[in-house]
Structures are given as C-alpha cells and as structure tokens.
Amino acid sequence: MPLETPVRIVRELTERGYNAEQAAVTLIASAERPGQALEQVVEHVDDTTLRITAGDVRAALDGSRASTSDGDAVTADGDAPDQLSGDTENATKNEIQNSTGGDTPNATGSLETGASSTDASEGAPDSTDPSASTGESDSNRVTTADNTEEDSAREAGDSAPEAEGDASAANATDADDIQRSQAVGRGRGDGAQGRSDAERDRGDGDRRRSAGDAPASRTVDPSLRSLEVAGDVTGQSTGTGEYGDFVKVFRDRYEKLSKQLRGRVNHRPATAIQSMSGGNDAAMIGLVNDIRSTKSGHWLVELEDTTGTFPCLVMKDRGFAELVDELLLDECIAVEGTLSDDAGIMFVDSMHFPDVPRTYSPNTADRHVQAALVSDVHVGSQEFEADAWTRFADWLHTEEAERVEYLLIAGDMVEGVGVYPDQDEELDIVDIYEQYEAFSEHLKDVPGDMEILMIPGNHDAVRLAEPQPGFDENLREIMSAHDARITGNPSLVTVEGVKILMYHGVSLDEVIAELPEGKASYDDPHKAMYQLLKKRHVAPQFGGKTRLAPEEKDYLVMEEVPDVFHTGHVHKLGWGKYHDVLAVNSGCWQAQTDFQKSVNIDPDVGYAPILDLDTLDMTVRKFV
Amino acid sequence: MRDDDERYFERIESRLDEAFERAERAKGMGYDPEPEVEIPVAKDMADRVENILGIAGVAERVRELEGEMSREEAALELVTDFVEGTVGDYEGRAGKIEGAVRTAVALLTEGVVAAPIEGIDRVEILENDDGTEFVNVYYAGPIRSAGGTAQALSVLVADYARSLLGIDEYDARTVETERYAEEISLYDKETGLQYSPKDKETKFIADHMPIMLDGEATGDEEVSGFRDLERVDTNSARGGMCLVLAEGIALKAPKIQRYTRGLDEVDWPWLQDLIDGTIGKSDAEAEAADAESAPDEADEESAADTESEDGGSENDGGEEAPDNADEPAGPPRLDPSTKFLRDLIAGRPVFGHPSAEGGFRLRYGRARNHGFATAGVHPATMHLVDDFLATGTQIKTERPGKAAGVIPVDSIEGPTVRLANGDVRRIDDPAEALEVRNGVEKIIDLGEYLVNFGEFVENNHPLAPASYVYEWWVQDFAAAGAPVQALEDDPAVDLEHPTPAEAEQWATEHDCPLHPDYTYLWHDVSVEQFEELADAVADGRLVPRASDGGVADADGPAGGPAASGNAAIEDRAVLELANAEPIAETLERLLVEHTQSGETIRVPEWRLLVRSLGFAVDGAESGSVDDDTVARPRLDRTWGPSDLSPAAREWDDGESAIRAANEVAPFEIRERAPTRIGNRMGRPEKSESRDLSPAVHTLFPIGEAGGSQRDVGEAARGRDEQGRRGVVDVRVGDRVCPDCDAHTYRTTCPDCGAHTEPHYECEECGQVIEPDDSGRVHCDRCDRDVTSPDWFSIDVGEEYRRALETVGERESAYEILKGVKGLTSADKTPEPMEKGVLRAKNGVTSFKDGTVRYDMTDLPVTAVRPSELDVTAADFRELGYQTDIDGEPLEFDDQLVELKVQDIVLSDGAAEHMLKTADFVDDLLEQYYGLPPFYEVDEREDLVGELVFGMAPHTSAAVVGRVVGFTSAAVGYAHPYFHAAKRRNCDGDEDCVMLLMDGLLNFSKQYLPDKRGGQMDAPLVMSSRIDPSEIDDEAHNMDIVRQYPREFYEATLELDDPEAVEDLIQLGEDTLGTDEEYRGFDHTHDTSDIALGPDLSAYKTLGSMMDKMDAQLALSRKLRAVDETDVAERVIEYHFLPDLIGNLRAFSRQETRCLDCGEKYRRMPLTGDCRECGGRVNLTVHQGSVNKYMDTAIHVAEEFGCREYTKQRLEVLEKSLESVFENDKNKQSGFADFM
Q1: Final residue of a domain: which of B282, B298, B327?
Q2: Rounded to 5 degrees, what are φ and ψ at A311?
Q3: In a domain, B1003, yes or no
Q4: Residue B515 shares a structural domain with residue B495
Q5: Where do the DNA polymerase alpha/delta/epsilon subunit B domain residues begin and end (chain A) (predicted)?
Q6: What pLDDT is stored for residue B265 in this prediction?
Q7: Closest Cα to residue B1001, out of B848, B868, B849?
Q8: What are the backbone angles phi and psi of residue A492, rounded to the nearest 5°?
C-alpha cells in the first residue's frame, strides 16, 4: 500500500500504536520510499515510545540514506480512487456471498431478517448458502491462520448466546459454509502490498492490543471507498428560536411529505373542504393535529394543512381503523372519504402514509465491502464494557474482518454529564472531556485504515434538541484519532452507493410508548423503526418526549428512502427489513444500569452488526 | 370549666349571637342565594361533624357515645346505627356504607378538614367474578387531609358495614393486584408517599383486602402495564386510593389491628404479617429490622456509662478517671443530618451547615411566643444575617423537626462577630447589631437557638445534649448547697451575670461547675490549640485597662462593690497576648471577646479564661511591673505538657479540649454548646390580603366583555357582535320565583321581589325535579343528573346601573369594578352586583366563596404585654383580663398577661384590611340591606374585641377568634390552641382571617366551585369555642412550665428519648379535661417584645431574584458555619440547572398561544396565524426565559470554585443554548468584535 500521504502515514502509525509529531510525519512522507522508511522508524524506536519525534525519524533513516526531497510529499490523495477504480470492480465481480444474518443472536429469536435476506439473495449464484456465522467472540485471539476455520466453527456453536437449542444443529450443518466463507475472505488478499510481512515483524503486541496476535493483516485499499453525507445540520443551524422558525419547520415537513402523497389522492386544502357541500367525496393531506376517541368508540382525527384543519372520522368497524393506533401526532397522512350531510366532518374510507414504496429496490455497493454498525458506547460510565469493545476492536484487525472498512457509530460515544440527576455518582470518568479522550483512545484500538463516521446522541455534549449538530471543534480535536467523520443527528450517509440513514433514536422511546405493544416494543426496536420509515420521519410527534430545535427546514424528514436505517439509543439489538429497507438498532456497549434494572430493561451489550454493503445482508457478531 | 373561662366564652358567644341576629335579618330579605346564614355554629365536635356531613342525628349519637368510648370506637359503633337506619336516611346499602365511612372520617378528623366530604367520592356495590357482591370505596385526592389513621380506619369501617350487611368480600383479580403494585410505585415516584410499600407488600394487601379500594385519577402520568382494566376506569394513578393503601393500611397496620381485635364481625388476620414486616422483605432485611433494637440497648448502656463517669468526675475533681476500655472516646453527640439542605433554592440562604461549629447553639426552653414548631432566635442575629430572618420566616432545620417558624427572643445569647478591625464581640442588642452590621467581617457564632422540650416530644426526636446555660447552672448551684435564694434576693449580686470574681468564687467554693457566662467553648478547640493558647498566655502579660481600646469599658461588668480590692485591680487590667493568627482563631472558636491592635491581642475578660487554662492568678505577691504604678497580679502556669492525661488528649480524637480544660482548671467546666443546629431559610413570612388572580370584586359573570381586567364598567359600555350594548351571553343558574313563577338568574324576583329558588328542569323530559336530602338532583325517568344553569343574555349595563342605584353610589367612588368571566359553581348563582360595588368602594376584593380574606403566617403566643400590642391595660381589662401571669392586678401596659385561647393578634396589614372590611360590611348593611351598621370603626383600636374567623386551607371549618391587639411583625400571633383548632402548626404555615360579619353575610355554598376540592377552604361550619380535647393533638405536646428540671438537662447528655423525661415537664396534654385546660401556659424565657428584629425578611424587600441570590451568597461567605462553595453548588444544582434544563426542554416542546384571543395550540399552526381569530400567535417559552440564569450560574460557579463537574454541565448547557438560539451563519458578535 502506498504511503504517499501524511494522513495514511499517521493512520499506519496509529494502528501500530504510535502517535507522531507533525514534523516526523513530514519526514517519513518525504522519504523516497515512505513505506520502507516507516518500517525503519518503527523498528528503530524503543518499544516504550508512544510518540515518534522528528529526531526518531532522522535517527532511523540516517543509516539507510533517505534524501529529503521536495514538496511532492503531500500528494493529492483525491486522485487515488480514480486510479484504482478498475480494481475495485474486478474485486466485486468475484464476490461471493459469504454470510447472512439468518441465524440471529437476537433475544427474541426473530427470524424475519434471515428469511428476507435469504429471499433477497435467491437470484445470486451462491444463494444456497443460508448460513450464519455468529458469536466467534474469541476467535481472533485464540486462532491462528491455519486453524481459523475449525475453531471459529466450533465457537460459533459455543458462544452463540441465545440460539441455544437450535445452535448446535445449525452449527453442524453450517460448518462447511463458514469454512468456505473464511477461505474466501482470506483468499481475497489481492491488492495487498506485502504489508502483512512487516506487520508480523512488529511484535509489539504489548503496547497495543489491536496490534496483538492478529496473524493476518488487513489489506484494504482506501482509494476504493466513498462516503458522502447529506442532511447534516452541523454548521447549518440557522434557527434562532423564534416562533417563525417553528412554523417554517412544520411547513417544510408538510411540503416534503405531502409531496409523497399527492399522487395517491386527489386532495383539497382544508379550507376548500370546509366549503364543500355535504355528501361529497373528498381527500385531504395533512399533519395529524389531534386524535380523539368518540363516545361510541370511533376515532376523530383532525388533520391540518397550511390553510386550516378538518376533522376526519374513522369508524371503529372499518378495516383500517387499527391504523389509528399507529398514528402519531404531527405525522403527515392522506385520507379519502365522504363528507357528512352537514359537511362538518369527513367519514374516512382510506388512509395513506408517505411510506416506502413496496417496489423499492435498495442500492448496493459495487464491491464486497462491509460496514460495522454500532452505537451507544457510553465511555465514562461505570457500566461501559471496555473488554467487549476491545474484543470488537481486536476482531476488526483479523483477516475475517478484513472487509469491514467502515465503522458507523449512531451516537452516545460517552456517558456524558448531567444527563440525569446525581449522575456523577455513577460515572467512572466524571470529566466530560476526559470521557471523550477515553473514547478517543478506545477508538484508536480499531484499525487505522477504517473509515469512521459518528453522529451524536442524547448523552453527548451537544444540544439535545433535534436535529443535533455534530461535535464542536473542541470535541473534534479530542476525537481526532483516525480522522473520523463527524456529522449531525440525523444524517444520510452514502457509503459506496448505499444510503444509510443514521439517527440516534430518541424518538423510539415515544413510538414505543405511544403505539400498541405488537407494533413497537423494546424487544423489537426495529419494528418501531418500521413505523418511522412508514411515516418517513425520524421523530414526528412534537411536544412529547422528543425535543425539536427549529431550523429553516425539517431535517428529520426522510426525503429520500434510505437503503439502511441505523439507530441506537434503546440499547436493544434488533433488525429486519421493511419494504426491503434494512432497519438496524445496534445494541450498546454499556452493561445494565441501575436505572435500566429498575424499569426492567435488559440491554443487548457488545453486539456489532456487520453489514455487507454489496448485498445488504447482515451478520451480527457478539463480543461479550 | 372555671367560671372565668365560662364568662370568656359567653362573652364571645354573646357578640357572636349579636352578629348572627343582624346577619339573619339581612339574609332574611332574600337578596342572597339562601335566605339564611350559611355558616352554622358548632358548639362542639359532634356539631361540626353533623354540619360538615349534613347528616341529621349524627351529633346527638356522637355525644352519647363520646362519654363511653374513644372516638375510634365511636366511629365503629356508629356503623351499626347506619346499617340499622337509626342514623342517616339512606335507602340503599351503598348509601349506608357511605354514610358510615364519611362519618368515621369526620369523627377522626374532629369535623374540621374536608376529607370526609371531598376525600370520599362514593361507595358502590359491584360483582365479583363468581357473581357474589363486594363493596367498592371510591376515594379522591383530598382524603390526604384525613391523615393515615383516619384513612385506614375508613377502610375498616367500610368492611365492618359490609359484614353487617352481609355483602361478600372483594376478590381481586390478579391483574388488579398487579395494578395496585404498579400504581403505587408510580404514585410514589410522581407525588411521593410518606411510606412506600414494597410491591410484595402492596400485592399482599390487595389480595387480602376485603373491600375494593378505588378512586379517581389524580395525575397525568399513566401506568404502563395493567392498563384498561375492566373494573378500574382510569390508567392514571388514583391518588386517594394510593394514600389509603400505603399511608393508611400499610403504615398504620398496628393501629387498625387494635380495633379489628375488638370486632367479632371483622377479622383481618393478615395484618399481623404486615406488622411483623415479613412481607416484601427478604429474610436478611427482616433480620436487620430485628437487629435494630439491639443497638438501641447498646446506646442505653453506653449512656449509663457516661452518667456514672460524670458522677465520678464531679466527686473527685482532679483525679484521673480509670482508663477502661468501655469508656467512650468522645462526647455524646447526635449525628449531623443534611436533609434540610435538600432542594436549596436561590435567594434563600443557609445559616448553618449540619451541626457545623459557628451555627446556632441549641438552648432548651420555651419563650412566651414559642412552641408548636417554632424556633427562638436572638433579634440581633436576625439583623446580622442581613435581615433574612424576620418574625415568622420559615426555616428548614436540622432538628428536631423539619421546619420551624422563627420568633424573636432576646433573653438568649446573641451572635458573636469579628469586625473588620479584628475585634471580636458578642452582640446582644439589636440596635448594636444594626450599628456594626456593615463592619462585620465574619459571623463567628449565630448565637443561641431556643427550642422547647415539647418539640422533641412531638417529633419523637432523641434529646440533643443541652448547652450549659444559666437555668441549668443555677439548679446545679442550688444542688451544691449554695444559698441561691439569698443570692437572688441580694441586690448586689446578679446571679445570671456575675462578676468574674464571683463566678470564680462560686465555682471553687461550692463544688459547682463554672458559671455559663464564663464557660468558653473548649469543646470547639483541639487539645493542640488548647496548649498553644496556654503557651501564648504564659508569654502574655497583663496591662492596664486604659489601653484596651475601650471594648472592656463598654462591655465588661462593672466591678461590684463586693469585689475585693485585689479584684478591683485585676478588673482594671487586661490580658495582652502576641498577635498570631492561630491564637486569634482559637479565641474566636472559644467565643472569647477580644480586640486586636497590630502586634497584640487584648482580652478584657481574662480571669476565668486563664483559670480555665490552668493558670493561677497570684495577686498578693505581685510587685510593680515595668513602669506601671498599679500593682498587677501574676499568672502562673500550673501544669506542663506531660500533665495532660492520655484520656484528655485522645478525647474526641484530640478535637475537643474540654477534658484537658477540666484537668488543668481548678473547677469543673461543662460543655457550653455541644449541639449546633444547621438550618436554612424556607418560605418568607406572609401577611397580605388574599386576592384571586385577577382580583375580583363581585362574583358576577361578564364573559369576555370586560377584557382581561374583567372590568364591569367596560362590559357595561361595550357592544357585542350583534351591536347590543352591554349585553353578554353567559351561563347562569335558572331560578324561579315561588310566588309568581317568573324565571330569572337573580336571587330576587324582578317582578315581585320575592326570594327565588334554583329551578331544575330535566333537559330530556322537561320534568321539574326537586333536590333530594343530600342535595343531589336526579331525574329518575331519564336516569341523569339535572342542573339549573342555562344560557342567559344578561344586560350588564342595566345590572350595573341598578346596582349603583340600589346602594346609592356613583361609579366615581372607585377606580374599577372587577367581575368574573364565568361561574364555576354547580348552580352558577351570580352574586348581587351591589356587594361588588361596595367592595370596590372600600378597596377590598372577594375570594371564591364571597368572603374577604387576609392571609398571615401563624405564630403562637401564650402571654402578651398590652404595650407591645399597641393597646392599653385598660383595653385589656375591658376584654376581661384582670391579672397578670403572676396573679397581680393588671394595671400597667407592660405587665405580662396570659393570653386566652381564642384571642388573636393582627398584623398591621391585617388590621388595616379588617378596617376596610368593617367599613364594607357597614356600608352593605346600611346601603344594601337597609339595616343599622354593625361595626362603626374609625381607627384600628375599635377593632379590639371584635370577632373574626380563622380558617386554614384544606379545612372546612372556621374558628371564631377575638382581636386583642396588633403587631408590626408580618404574622398572625394567636394562642397555639387557636392554631391547632384550625389544624395548623406554626412551622411557617399560613392561613387566613375573615371578619365575622363579612363571613356571615357574604358566604354562600352556592358560590363554591363544583369540582374536586371546591368545598375545601370554605367555612362550611364554625366553632364558637375551642375544646382543647378536640384540637390537633400536636398542640398538646407543648410544654407549659416555668423551668425545666436539672434531671432533664442531664438526660439530654445521654441522648435519651423524650419520653424518658416526659413526666418531669408538664405538657399541655397533662391539663386536658381539667379546669386548668384553658390556663397555666407558663414559659421559661421571656422576650421584651414579640415583634423584635426586622419586620420583613430581606427576601421580601430585595427586588430581583438576582439581588436575593447575591445577598444569599454574600451572607454565606460571612457565616463561619456555612460552606459557601457548597451553597453555590447547591443553588446551581437544585435551582439553576433544573431551571435551565427544564426551560430548555419546555422550549423545544412548547405550546403556543394567540396573543389576541388567547387560543392555545399544542403545536405551531401551519397557517402561522391563529386559526380562530387570525391573530398573531407566539411562543409561550422564549429564549429570555430559557437562559435567564445562564450567565449568573456560570459566574457563580467560577467565583465560588464549584466542582468541575458542575462547571462542565453548565458549559454543555451553554453550548446547547447557543446552538438552539444562535444562527451558525450569523453568529452574534460580541463587543470585542468592534474593538
């Protein structure tokens, strides 16, 4: 791998556990063969050194003659992807689907995803492969390259935590598949630049676990990557908390969502309907302003558009009446029906949601590449599971995780301060900045070549009201490791063509509280996410638990249909597909807190869903 | 009852009768909703119970039973009467049970509180799953005011009635049991319970409860599981039910068991499990509970040790006590409690951290304006804490109770301060306090804090070690064989404040501890400091007094003629020590007054200080020193470092030098201030008229026509949408004239002038219904309740003109006449507008029930001086007072007189308000009813002897009181029994007074709001005389003696429970039922005036919250007993942060409101403008209200060195505020940007 840019040199050094002076990096970059120079420097410096200085570099390079050359040290790395794009395509063509999320470790035993993903992949050449490889929690530490297959197969059975009975059966039959998938994974070390040799030689495992005993090196080519962010409020927050700002937000919501519904009904503005005569057919698109049950058990839904409101009656005996249970205030819906004789009310015949089209066909990446979706790390909490995180980071260094090139974190990096009363008594790290420093240290454990993106959550030191802007300069500096991307909550992140909607998930609490248990619950957080997809809005209800900061537009609307919807917050693992959109709530890295115990929430700790960006299949790995 | 008391009550009652007669005449004219006075007089509790319930025959039966049995037993006995139908007129079984339950609650609450009418909604008979019937009692929130015992007993009564009626037991479904558990934890979380039963306990009770407990929803928060149950019609917490189950049944199980045992029909064997505490606790916890009694015993043992030891040291003086292992290593102390500091808010200062040195020193005793949840503070202290304390200010206190009302007592020691020039002085005079206040650098000690013994009894709080004070010493002195009586009679001797020579002589000659005046706080200095000071004294010298800076001249006792020549010389010398900070600090901690001048510290009162430090003062051998002409005594140190025993050095880990001092001093020294009491300000005192918001002159509805001011004049002139002038459409009660059948909303027939009655016509069938006995109006044909209100178009202009004309007033007689928007009462009877006109004219406003009220903080007083009440001895004699407290004839204005139980003292503000009310009443009688005036007052002295109603919130019974004088303090002083009769204590509670005639004339039940709690705070009945047995028994725990015995003080050192010494001190309860029950309320401490100190707390005189907080923090820096960082931290944590966080949260999910029509919107309308009127809509929470404390909070956190955690929380919040309220692209530029 070419080490032509300072950024990559820093990454490489970080991965090996070193920090470096800017001058030192420049020196390495300006060496004739930076890669070699770096190896020399690493060999030269003392094992206990943490920070490589320019002096170290000069000392290391003195013997091997490195002439300081001119300014081409800082090459434009923008060119790199283009040069190598051909390779990328080749690689993806050879891709074989190597695992699916079929046999999930999900506590509820939900098999939905497995089924749907199997369905989805039926057309693919190797679709006979229904396997799951889950829970190799320790494989990265105990196995060597030679016995990876066997060990991991065995451990898949041993440690798949909730699969229990089925697990052993699945285990036996899946063994082959896993072997193969591993083999394939290992066989794809094509673009490698011989870095692996160098890495093996390091032997400085004691300094940084990540560099530890990992027998195989990651062979990634950052030039193949692409990551774009849309709908990020960071730096764009123009609201000043005026009444007009609020009106603007809700109007924007109405505009954007009504657009989704306009083709489906022949709607009229509320004022027009108000002046229609009784008995006529009518249709209206509006934000839900009020929901009341009438004495006789029917539902009165008041809809509001930019002209006014109109009451719509949903009779309890209508087939779609149960949809009223799913309604949240301030979401946008369309109704069709007949006006009453006095034209004072509309009897609803049908109800429409903006929704994800049933025909929606998600985008995929052009090559086999994976993204790890995690959230709710909660560094600083006494309950933060550092060991699980370390295992996760270690695993990312293994060959098996070689294709995991993206790490997307959906908020709550740290436990924060003042989130609830007397929180200081339960903090491991009381200082908020030290919490972020500790988080940054933990982030350094993951391979330096990964692309990392994070959004804030409700524990983070940004405003609580949504949309939340990304971390400020001060915190960005603290979390500079790996040059992570920091964006707002929510953000639509396009990763090699796959649109991933990142949202922390505070509104899930409200959806779960408001909707009937069957439609949304903490045990099936993805079902609550389906509701949000259906409403095409991440936090519709105003005035309840979710807080809104008024901006010039409604950042919380899902204007585009995402391919993947990733949230956290409720500390429960759950995923599934809704109209072919993958919804993932990714658990947490914080063991059960006293508060959670008191309300009987049993969090899913230490899971990392791994998403295949080329197939949108998902494997969940457990690290506890 | 003594004749004297009988005469007193007859006097009151005759004036009451006079007023009643006049009021009946006025009411009889039919101008009011009812043609008679609506506040019945209750002579005793039985009367009140009957009146409050409105069940005829109850009173008689109660009186019959009262003589024979306890009130609880009577309540159960009455069940039989209800079931058999001998009492009450109930047809159905449910009605009978309801009547019995209500009566029981009324009986147990002495017929004063509203719980029996408001707290029990109804009783139903429902069906179990097996088809059998069970009883459901439906409680409401106001059952709270009944208290746990009455709540629990109400259940028992219902069950007893159930069994007598042969109804089956309630069989709870599993979901219902679970629901009880969930609901009670929810309620506990939301509202809080005194006792929070564990889930298992709740389920256990629910499972065994033979009747169903149900109730109406009291909160918005809903349960998450067990919703939508068939037999529970709400998903919210049912507050009344939760209270009854948790604070009633669960908490009072032992009390109920006492009564179930006596009833054959009722058997609740499961109570035993509750009492044993085996439900809902793991075995370990149960064991722990068992084990709890063990330490208590251990305590007693160790206390006994202390006693024997004390005895020992008294006997052998200098001899070492044997060093045995059981000996305690420190003095007896109670553990500090931080509870009172919770929820500290900005602007209300902390006066002392828990048990902190420099805080208030506990002194036992009861001043004449004291007892019943009050705390005596020296008036100089009140001034020195920057006037934050005033008479009546509530403080939250460390012990013995939770809160207390502050009263001024100047017979206790004042505060000690260090002035800017380094001088340390004790300030015993409020005037001096005001003089030096600006120069005070540190308040070293807050002075004494008087708490009466009864407080400890009431709170069942272990006695805290007593300060060594004069009243204890003098008993020790007498016990030591001294001729106390002779000395007392000797005009040359001041026993309470002797000269140093006398004190030394008494201490050494009579084996009696050193006099408290010269007992310094040796327990507050360490042994190390003690030795340091001794060294400093050894190096110091005596110098002539002239050079002492004058302090001693001002404060030092004048040498008595009895003092020897030597002593006279000594008195002219002062002790001079080298000035060093540690020495000065030690002297400060000891509370030794001294002056500083650069190089030296001078102690004017040094003799017993150096004696206590183990120096001999040898005057005889002294020659002349230096060039001074006066012979001065020499100080000889009598001990060296090795002379201190290990026991003395290790006592209290070396932190207390009291034993060291006792070892080296030639006399015994007691602990001067072993108990310090921390406290902080609670509510400020109150004395202001009670106005509705906006204020109301007349309960006459004018809709929206009067604008936001509800201006009747404006409504009379305005035009409505149809162009009609002065006409408004409002809902008022339809009334009918019995004579000519005319329909009107007025109380008199417009045609014939007869009194009209509400007209109930069933909307559905048109039938006219008469109310039944219980006042319910029900159409049996249509099975619906019928109400009288209907829409009327009222010509307000016409009404207004007519009213003015009737009373002969012009509109110019007042500024504005304010009406109400609509009526909230069941029958919506409007008040005659004439009354409003006269109220407006006299500058008084009406409460919701038609009365004029004035609120005051309650304070007790048992003896008064006519002079301090701004009245004369002659006035008092006219009121029936003949002698002072010592039985001497009452001749002089400053004689101390024992107050009678129903006599009250009005604050200046109240007096002024009552004068206006009296004028209003007189105008009303003359100009409206055409009767002679009743009061005819010109100045406030005319109010003396007049009767008022005292009435507390949450109660429904007024108590008749008599005005005897006035005070400048902003409080309502009255006999503690008067407050107790209203069910108040004096810990900062406030309630109101009404002028008697105003209540009689203007109160009507028909004005009371038709909603839960509407009957509370309304005088549904009045007590004309107080029966001490029928008042809140808290008042019975007040001690009424002139001196506490020596044994009591000694018991405090053993941290005894108050019961241990209860027999030694007479309490109010000891005289109940005797002839003495109305008199003999003696006190241990006098105060020169009951209104000393500032009239108003600084909290009320300071303007903005910021000013208050600045003052609070400035004070916290000045007080030695206060940790200012902790105060700042708490203010931020409990006030600023919750405010900021709460407002920010509120901002991001706020409602909006139309500025023009007031319409509220849950969310901003998409139209932008108001959907109703097209007007401008705006936010209800603005940026300004969100971040108003931000800068201050950050500033305070910086200045007071708050924790990094707190600062960071503020930092994060500040960024959030910026993020929400600032445009990223157009950042607010600061001043610096322009430089």
Answers
A1: B282
A2: -80, 135
A3: no
A4: yes
A5: 372-568
A6: 80
A7: B849
A8: -100, 115
Tell whether B189 is within 8 A of chain A (Cβ): no
The model carries a pTM of 0.79
Amino acid letter at B32?
Answer: D
DSSP sequence for B561-585 = TTS-HHHHHHHTEEEEEE--HHHHH
The whole-angstrom distance between B601's CA and the closest CA on chain A is 47
- Mark whether B361 and B455 lie in a shared domain: yes
Distances, alpha carbon A373 to alpha carbons A388, A412, A455, B414, B796, in Å: 15, 13, 12, 69, 71
d(CA A237, CA A466): 11
For A:230-289, CB contacts with B below 8 A are 235-244, 246-247, 250-251, 254, 287, 289
List, in sequence order, every residue forming a beta bridge with B729; answer none if it has no partner.
B793
Read off the tokens for B919: 């004028």
* Backbone phi and psi for residue A618, each to the nearest 5 degrees, phi listed first: -135, 140
User: What does the H/E/C string look like for A437-492?
Assistant: HHHHHHHHCCCCCCEEEECCCCCCCCCCCECECCCCHHHHHHCCHHHCEECCECEE
pLDDT band at B14 (very low <50, low <70, confident <90, very high): very high
* Chain CA centroid to CA A534, Å: 19
What does the DSSP 8-state code read for residue B46? Answer: H
Is residue B443 located within the same domain as residue B483?
no
State the CATH architecture for A263-352.
Answer: Beta Barrel (2.40)
pLDDT digits (tens, 9 = 90+) for B765-784: 888 888 876 677 888 888 88
Report the gap between the CA of B1208 and the closest CA in chain A (Å): 7
Same domain as B159, residue B209? yes
> What is the Cα–Cα distance from B897 to B876, expressed in whole angstroms?
9
Q: Does domain A359-622 have CATH number 2.40.30.60?
A: no
Helices (H), ranges, A122-269: 139-142, 148-159, 164-187, 195-202, 243-262
Residue at a domain's end among B762, B787, B812: B787
Give A-chain residues touching B1165 at CB under 8 angstroms: 247, 304
State whether A418 and B1216 contact (CB < 8 Å): no
Are B658 and B543 part of one and the same domain? yes
What's the start-to-end Cα distance of chain B, in Å? 86
Coil, helix or strand for B984? coil
pLDDT 10s digits, B162-217: 999 999 999 999 989 989 998 998 898 888 888 888 888 899 999 999 999 999 98
In this structure, how many other beta carbons lie within 10 angstroms of the beta carbon of residue A394?
A: 22
For residues B992 and B10, what is the distance between their CA atoms, to the nearest angstrom? 24
Q: Are residues B606 and B514 in the same domain?
A: yes
DSSP secondary structure, B374-415, as one string: EEEE-HHHHHHTTT---TT-EEEESSSSSEEEEEE-SSS---
- The answer to whether B612 faces chain A, any CB pair under 8 Å, is no
Cα three-residue angle A7-A13-A19, rounded to 5 degrees:
95
Vertex A155: Cα angle to A152 and A156 (nearest 5): 85
